[in-house]
Description:
globular, alpha+beta, 132 residues
Amino acid sequence: MSKQTRRYLILARFSQTDIIPARASLMESAAGVSVEEPLLAFSSEQGDTVGVLVRSEMVSAQIIYSLANDYMIGDQTFIFVMGVDEDWSGVGAQASWEWLREGRGASAPSEGNTDYQGDIGPDTSLGDSARL
């Protein structure tokens, strides 16, 4: 039985003193868990908080274990892994939404943003909040 590839958003925040080596370590580890090149979805202005998109055959707990490094110390640093299913929407960050749309297999024909024509506005049927 083959493993299913799923999409994940990895959120990470690093100490200001460790930004460069911590981000390099995260991206190297993310490449190791992803079946294709990970995408840096966003970075904070200071660079200490990032979002990385990966496709992996692992579950989130396995991914966290693979990403944990010496830079995750104290209360202000973290790594959070969240699966991205078919129900998502976003505004801005066009490259990230394109990445999420790509590579969907026959098992996910109704994936989010199938009529993507640029930025997708908030789902007004649920109020004014956008969903990822």
